[in-house]
Amino acid sequence: MKKTRSGHATGRINMMTGGLAWTPVIEIRNYTDPTGDFHERYRSAIIRERMLAAYGNADTHVNWTGANIGANTNQMRVAALDQLEDWLDAIEAAGGPGDRARTVAARPAGLTDGCFDAQMSFISETLDYDDPGTACNQLYPYHSQPRAEAGMPLLADGLKCTLAPANRADYPGVTDAQWARLASTFPSGVCDWSERPQGVTPLEGTWLDFGTTEAVDGAAPVVAGTARVGEVVTAQVQAAEGATVAYQWIADGAPIAGAVEASFAPTADLVGAELTVRATVSADDRVAVTLVSDPTGKVKKAPGKP
User: Considering the entire predicted model, what is its pTM?
Assistant: First the structure.
């Protein structure tokens, strides 16, 4: 649930809010539905539905669909960029970005939703998910997905639906065995699409600060001394002033229990093992870094030991 709320609050689940309130959008989509591509035309309808839910209109959003032909897609892209340049110039001339009404008023005359046929003839037609009989929807029919077939609204903004107990009256024709299987498969309930999904929350804002991304300065530790039973080896780390360093000594890739200081004295059970030391360098307002030394030679026996 926490991850779902964070997804909405930070815009990872894009509801076309925030800066998209006034950003002009010309969405071009080459029709790849028959190829099994995840980016099917259904996604365009979702974008439009989210625009309508946020503002009551989609006047800053234009959708074009075309055949899945490379040359056609390139032509569609060039045409869209030309229109977008005119749109942006008009916004700038009217006072600059930042206002939805200004963006809508600056939209180039004649810039409409529509589709291009295989010969690149343009059909002006409002994006409409619900009418399969329109010219563009005949050329490029929508496909669906399992959640939509199960009743999910076109807004499609939930990662986890709100649950309700399964009601057998909602499943006419199922056998007793099928009902028992459904109940055992969904013991916590089934999706109640009449309710908002779990964890939906408004966008916190745009250009959110997720904290520092600059790593603390530090160099890989160097082990000083001879790896021999009864002697001490010491990790030497170059780190920025004020940084703290946490250590972990490792033998043949396995952490040594309790060996968490800068210095370490190998014990007899480590004879033949190679030592490394892992140093984690931390500092305020910096991202911590973890550095590992080169391996020592194999731990030797104590002097005079057979």
Answer: 0.69
Residue 171's nearest CA partner among 181, 162, 161 is 181
Round the CA-based radius of gyration of the chain to a whole number and report it.
Answer: 31
Amino acid residing at 146 = P
Q: Which long-range contacts link 131-137 to residues 24+ away (Cβ below 8 Å)?
A: 136/65
Cβ proximity of 68 and 32 under 8 Å: yes
State the residue for tokens 């180039």.
108
Question: Is the Cβ–Cβ distance between 100 and 60 less than 8 Å?
Answer: yes
**Cα 199 to the center of its chain, rounded Å:** 17
Give 10-residue mean pLDDT values along the chain (306 residues).
Answer: 79 93 97 92 97 97 98 98 98 95 97 98 97 97 91 93 94 95 95 93 84 83 94 92 92 94 95 95 89 93 76
**Residue recorded with tokens 């046929």:** 117
C-beta of residue 188 within 8 angstroms of C-beta of residue 163: yes
Those residues with Cβ within 8 angstroms of residue 160's Cβ, 6 or more apart along the chain or in another chain: 1, 4, 197, 198, 199
Task: Locate 162 and state its tokens.
Answer: 């709100």
How far from the centroid of its chain's Cα atoms is residue 262's Cα?
39
List CB contacts of 152: < 8 A, sequence separation 6 or more: 158, 161, 191, 193
Hey, what's the torsion of the CAs at 120, 125, 127, 129, to 10 degrees?
A: -100
